[in-house]
Amino acid sequence: GIQVEQSPPDLILQEGANSTLRCNFSDSVNNLQWFHQNPWGQLINLFYIPSGTKQNGRLSATTVATERYSLLYISSSQTTDSGVYFCAVEKKGGSEKLVFGKGTKLTVNP
Amino acid sequence: NAGVTQTPKFQVLKTGQSMTLQCAQDMNHEYMSWYRQDPGMGLRLIHYSVGAGITDQGEVPNGYNVSRSTTEDFPLRLLSAAPSQTSVYFCATRTPSGLYEQYFGPGTRLTVT
Fold first, then answer.
1. Does residue B20 contact residue B75 with C-beta atoms inside 8 Å?
2. What is the mean pLDDT of chain A?
3. Which chain A residues touch B88 with a CB distance below 8 Å?
4. Chain B residues lying within 8 Å of A48, measured CB to CB
5. Which terminal Cβ of chain B has fewer Cβ within 10 Å, N or C?
6. CA distance A71 to B50
7. Which chain A residues are Cβ-neighbours of B102 within 8 angstroms?
8. Is the model's pLDDT at A96 over the cut of 80?
């Protein structure tokens, strides 16, 4: 099946710093999403981005489908950004199964 | 508008017991799915459904059954619980193709002793 690798596994920042999270995937995809899981366990959809670039406030994401990677940028980080960020993909031409990476755990200290 | 609801929030079972995790949604989404989340493993797809009467297996279906008799409900059944099924279970729905916005329930934390 398709493989999804996220890096780094852990990231610790001071409030106000910027960060880049990476997601590599092993096959062509027709669906790529970024999710945030807050420290209370709730999962929130951040971006649907199988290709191109999107921005939402301090967060933006870029997917280069031809090179099979996606980047999530967090600018001016806040303590509320803490949690785990997951990348999930669905293989092109495959069945409707979303495969998740293992996540990047982000801790933003005040 | 409650979104995706799951019951119970917590459950402790003994090995061999059976139970059903409930999932309901009020967004009229055709696609629903169940995931389990284990430490360091991300989320893994158990079963999914693209509409009432249609279900299919995900990555880790063994030990779990599902059915989809209505658009609103998608229960997950554990027939004979095992300690390996200790996990946090999430139900999710998804908007139609082209939008792919996924909505997750709050999760059920299951412990099998």
1. yes
2. 95
3. 41
4. 99-101
5. N
6. 29
7. 33, 35, 45, 98
8. no
User: How buried is A102 (Cβ within 10 angstroms: 0-12 exposed, 13-18 middle, 19+ buried)?
Assistant: middle
Question: Hey, is the C-beta of A12 within 8 angstroms of any chain B C-beta?
Answer: no
Phi, then psi, of A67 in degrees rounded to 5: -105, 0
How many whole angstroms separate alpha carbon A64 and alpha carbon A70?
A: 6
Contact B57, A95 (CB under 8 A): no
Q: Looking at the DSSP assignment, which residues form a beta bridge with residue B45?
A: B35
- b vs e for A60-89, b when ≥16 Cβ sit within 10 Å of the residue's Cβ? bbbbebeebbbbbebeebeeebbbbbbbbb
Contact A98 B56 (CB under 8 A): no
pLDDT recorded at residue A97: 86
CA angle centred on A98, ends B69 and A8, rounded to 5°: 145
